[in-house]
Amino acid sequence: MQISNFSAYKSNSYLCKQFKTLLTVDIFNKCTVNLGPLGQYADQTEGYFMFPKLEGEISNKMMFKGKERLIWSLNNYLGLANHPDVRKADAEAATEFGMAYPMGARMMSGQTVYHEQLERELASFVKREAAYLLNYGYQGMVSVINSLVDRKDVIVYDSEAHACIIDGMRLHFGKRFVYPHNNIENLEIQLRRAKKLSELNGGGILVITEGVYGMSGDLGKLKEITDLKQKYDFRLLVDDAHGFGTMGPTGAGTDEYFGVQDKVDLYFGTFAKSMAGIGGFIAGDKQVIKYLMYNMRSQIFAKSLPMPMVIGALKRLEMLRNQPEHREKLWKIVHALQDGLKAKGLDIGNTESPVTPVMLYGGVGEATQITFDLRENYNIFCSIVSYPVVPKGVILLRLIPTAVHTLADVEYTINAFAEVKEKLDQKKYSTDMADIS
Ligand SMILES: Cc1ncc(COP(=O)(O)O)c(C=O)c1O
């Protein structure tokens, strides 16, 4: 028997509780009963706060709802997204190869010399023996984790791990231990537990951290973590989605920044941020990469990256390596923005990367009012995060500086944020959701 309406759904839960009897429900019931923590606001937010459409060329200024806005929400760190040389490389590759080539998965019929060349160049740039391309960073990370561990192994991970790390671990049949964000003392406690268990089961330990935490901008404590490797005998996987291209003397990532490239066993980067493309890569020792090539389900059972993505990535990587001016410009903007916000008394947390969170305090209503004010009255577009992504009462406005921003953009934004904070302190924002109709 199936039940398919709301009251039946409710009474089914009642029946289940009372009589421990289960009735089959329509699998879609949940879609009308509860759209989830973000979806519950869909009617009020869609098209404005959620799923907004940014139009025009990707740059510091774009169109939103027919008006030009100053954009601080794109991970186009090095400003490569719309660089004429990148656009040219993308267009020429699309003309020569189309979007379909190569057809098939790498292992079956999707291998090309360009894919191999990109892997060699990525490996050499991040100072590893080998690298393997991933079609998407997210699925790639899920699959890297899934293929590395079995039920005897233990995963130890940071509590603020990105969703792709969490999803990778969901496929893991063995134990996993979490340590509070960047808490090295607690990490050691978890490592002790992990070591005991792995010795008992004859398994290994995989520690996973991020290089740059994408919401708060603080860095994974790679130095302290790698210092524990010998004592606890683990392998370390670093998700450096936001650090690749931005961190370190050559832009090779957060492990380069900390001088621990030789101690990070597997380095993960995405093309979706500094490289302004799509796809990603995993780099490490030759034998481990070989193992991943033959075991990573996201790559074995999925079509290879299309040629324009690969040739476009080769062009971006060449610029990232040989044109440090993009990274220098980025950091000039980062320092001006972060110093200026701090000077105005705004709380930007512990960021040490370009990711710039501005922490304000209030509820979801105030958060939407502030975002509306910024967008409509100051023409500033940034991402907003409130409960349940951050603790109740925190409003996190996230600014992503890029190499295509100007110092005038920075000055304007700092002043706008100072005014917004003042209005919030004076309780000028209502606690009702902003009216976007
Ligand atoms: C830390 C982190 N890891 C992985 C990803 C996923 O990368 P991609 O967008 O290439 O799938 C992201 C993207 O937001 C990220 O921030």
Task: Explain what the structure shows.
It is a single chain. With 437 residues, the chain is α/β, with parallel strands linked by helices. It has two domains: 36-81 and 325-436, Aspartate Aminotransferase, domain 1 (Alpha-Beta Complex), CATH 3.90.1150; 98-322, Type I PLP-dependent aspartate aminotransferase-like (Major domain) (Aspartate Aminotransferase, domain 2), CATH 3.40.640. 43% of the residues lie in helices and 16% in strands. The protein is built from 18 helices and 16 strands. The strands form four sheets. The chain has a seven-stranded mixed sheet. Helix 16 packs parallel to helix 18. The longest helix has 19 residues, at 325-343. The radius of gyration is 23 Å and the shape is globular. It starts with a strand and ends in a 12-residue tail after the last helix. The model has no long low-confidence stretch (mean pLDDT 94). Pyridoxal-5'-phosphate binds at residues 136-138, 141, 162, 164, 210, 214, 239, 241, 270, 272, 280.
Task: Write down the overall geometry.
Answer: globular
Summarize the main sheet.
Answer: 7 strands, mixed
The CATH superfamily of the largest domain bears the name Type I PLP-dependent aspartate aminotransferase-like (Major domain)
Bound molecules: pyridoxal-5'-phosphate
> How many strand segments?
16
Text of the CATH class of the largest domain: Alpha Beta
The name CATH uses for the topology of the largest domain is: Aspartate Aminotransferase, domain 2
What's the tally of helices? 18
Strand content: 15-25%
pLDDT averaged residue by residue? 94
Helix content: 40-55%
State the oligomer: single chain
Total individual domains:
2
Reading side by side through the largest sheet, how are the strands ordered?
6-12-11-10-9-7-8
Question: Low-confidence runs (pLDDT<50, min 5 residues)?
Answer: none
CATH level-two architecture of the largest domain: 3-Layer(aba) Sandwich
Summing up helix and strand content along with how strands pair, one would put the structural category as alpha/beta
